[in-house]
Design brief:
Structural class: alpha/beta
Domain Glucose-methanol-choline oxidoreductase N-terminal: 144-334
Family: Belongs to the GMC oxidoreductase family.
Strand content: 15-25%
Protein name: GMC family oxidoreductase
Helix content: 10-25%
GO molecular function: flavin adenine dinucleotide binding; oxidoreductase activity, acting on CH-OH group of donors
CATH topology: FAD/NAD(P)-binding domain
CATH superfamily: FAD/NAD(P)-binding domain
CATH class: Alpha Beta
Domain Glucose-methanol-choline oxidoreductase C-terminal: 430-553
Distance between the termini: 40 Å
Radius of gyration: 23 Å
Number of helices: 11
Length: 571
């Protein structure tokens, strides 16, 4: 029988970026916060001393979720049987204190103003017929201008290095630290883009260009350009993560308690209010109930959805009727791009940082005319120098044998003679792409697995083809002797890695019939439950989601503090 613990003001389910921000802000305001994290806590700079073990971290995923205990099932369409993902592939789910914020690359964009009012702006410019049947495009119930102060706060917490996007929304202040270094590769892209009349800018980076102390007094060090960012923790404390920013801030208040190895299996609720959560201590095997005035779901997209569904909180989405909201509008991304092979030039491509790069936004959002195009939105084109690590990077021209003498020769030759330009193509919500509970499979604790039904759509394929042609042009302008495109977009597959930019399922809006949370991330169906993260995105943009996740988390924290004083649905 579960043991009931003393009540707290706020409990968070997950302690990554969102859980850390909620904890820090609420604890600073005097609220007592308990953070429940199902992973461990060996995630600080000293724990990553000499972390450059590519096999352990980049190939065997030491910092990621153990899919033998918890995974998802997947199918392309509703008449197929979904099967469990037995190894991490298309995306990499984090686990442990800091979550994915420990092993991310650090790309930190703001979404475009167009994103937040996408339905309204698309219809105003192109008419209702631009939005095709079964695409569930909807506004977010908040504008860029309303969210901008929270973007600014997150960027100052992280100490982001960058320069303003010439095609982005207005900013209230500059980035806290200057852009990262320019390299031969990034200069080549920047110069080519300018020659083509495009508008390049430095990739907004959470790998800091210089030492920085944030407004809460937390120090972040300057990047060493070691090339071990994505899938690795930072041994220098130079990559902004929850572990070096918001979590220490929360702990210093004396109002925050972190509990690790605490796997939440249910939100307990009655008469439209949550009363707490049930969790399992995974080391002891014991069950606990943690009562709380406010329950905040701050885990990854998949777990936020799963917990609401298994707890029967909110109406599950039904793709046949279009009714319900939990699991609705699951979106991903596609990654078109071009690799250039250079015969006479060599680059120090083995050096770099997760967010060392240049960006072109001319093909993103509605920054270009879509009148004669059979899709909406676009993607940010990025040339980054994250560093070619020897196991995971082996660029060779198409047609090269996959083994033998020629393979070895070309592997050695082109290791320092390639540049890749790629997009994160936006993903629009489609009626038959959704999340629900699997009727057959359960996790190690007997809880049903989350089931993903997802495939690329005509919108995705048309956008993919268009963006690929644009990156081909840029790579030719950069002087590549041979260019190699990604080809056509096939059906979505769960196996090859693409991005960890999953979104949706608990979407934001101003209409309870088509959204799950309001613009404070507060549930319509239970006003003391807040669901924070990319699960609230009504669609996915042409960027990494973290900047927008951070901004929404700061707004949610403000809402929780307001709710703790007054209660009720927030305006």
């Amino acid at each position: 029988m579960a043991k009931t613990l003393p009540k707290t003001d706020v409990v968070t389910v997950g302690v990554g970026w969102t859980g850390g921000i909620i904890a820090a802000e609420c604890a600073k305001a005097g609220l007592k916060v308990i953070g429940l994290e199902r992973g461990g806590d060996k995630r600080n700079s000293e724990d990553f001393s000499m972390v450059h073990d590519e096999l352990r971290y980049a190939i065997r995923y030491d910092l990621m979720q153990d899919v033998s205990k918890e995974t998802i099932t997947f199918r392309n369409k509703g008449d197929q049987r979904a099967l469990p993902m037995r190894q991490l592939g298309s995306f990499l789910l984090g686990e442990g204190v800091g979550g994915s914020g420990v092993h991310w690359n650090g790309h930190t964009f703001r979404f475009l103003p167009y994103d937040f009012e996408i339905k309204t702006k698309t219809i105003e410019k192109y008419g209702k017929n631009k939005i095709k049947k079964d695409y569930q495009i909807q506004d977010w119930g908040i504008t860029y201008d309303e969210l901008e102060p929270y973007y600014d706060k997150f960027e100052k917490t992280c100490g982001l290095s960058g320069e303003p996007n010439p095609l982005g929304g207005k900013r209230s202040s500059d980035y806290p630290t200057p852009p990262m270094k320019k390299t031969v590769i990034t200069r080549k892209f920047r110069e080519a883009a300018k020659e083509m009349g495009l508008h390049p800018f430095s990739l907004p980076s959470a790998n800091l260009s210089e030492d920085y102390t944030n407004p809460d007094g937390e120090k972040i060090n300057a990047c060493q350009y070691c090339a071990f960012c994505e899938r690795f923790g930072c041994e220098y404390g130079a990559k902004s993560s929850p572990n070096v920013t918001v979590i220490p801030t929360a702990k210093k208040t004396g109002n925050f308690e972190l509990r690790t190895h605490a796997n939440v299996v249910e939100i307990i609720h009655k008469n439209g209010k949550a009363t707490g959560v049930k969790y399992i201590d995974t080391l002891k095997g014991e069950e606990y109930i943690q009562p709380a005035d406010v329950v905040v779901l701050t885990s990854y997209v998949m777990n936020n959805n799963k917990l609401l569904l298994v707890s029967n909180l909110g109406q599950p989405y039904n793709p046949e009727t279009g009714k319900g909201v939990i699991g609705k509008n699951y979106c991903y991304q596609m990654v078109p791009g071009t690799t250039g092979f250079f015969e006479k030039e060599r680059f120090n491509s083995y050096m770099g940082a997760g967010s060392l790069g240049e960006v072109v936004d001319d093909f993103n959002g509605d920054n270009f005319d879509h009148s004669d195009l059979d899709f909406i939105h676009g993607g940010a084109l990025v040339v980054s120098q994250a560093g070619y690590r020897p196991i995971g990077n082996n660029p060779v021209p198409a047609g090269t044998p996959l083994w033998g003498k020629e393979f070895k020769q070309k592997s050695i030759k082109y290791y320092t003679r390639t540049i890749s330009a790629s997009y994160e193509g936006a993903s629009m919500p489609y009626r038959y792409n959704y999340l629900d509970l699997d009727p057959s499979y359960k996790d190690i604790y007997g809880v049903p697995l989350l089931r993903m039904t997802y495939n690329f759509t005509d919108q995705d394929r048309n956008l993919y083809d268009y963006l690929g042609k644009q990156s081909d042009k840029v790579m030719k302008e950069m002087g590549a002797d041979t260019i190699q495109s990604q080809g056509k977009l096939a059906d979505y597959d769960i196996v090859p890695y693409q991005t960890t930019h999953n979104t949706g399922g608990v979407i934001i809006g101003d209409d309870p019939s088509i959204s799950a949370v309001n613009n404070y991330s507060q549930m319509w169906d239970a006003d003391n439950v807040f669901v924070v993260g990319a699960s609230s995105f009504a669609h996915n943009s042409g960027y990494n989601p973290t900047g927008t996740v951070g901004a929404l988390a700061y707004r949610a924290a403000e809402g929780i503090i307001q709710y703790s004083k007054k209660g009720g649905q927030l305006a």
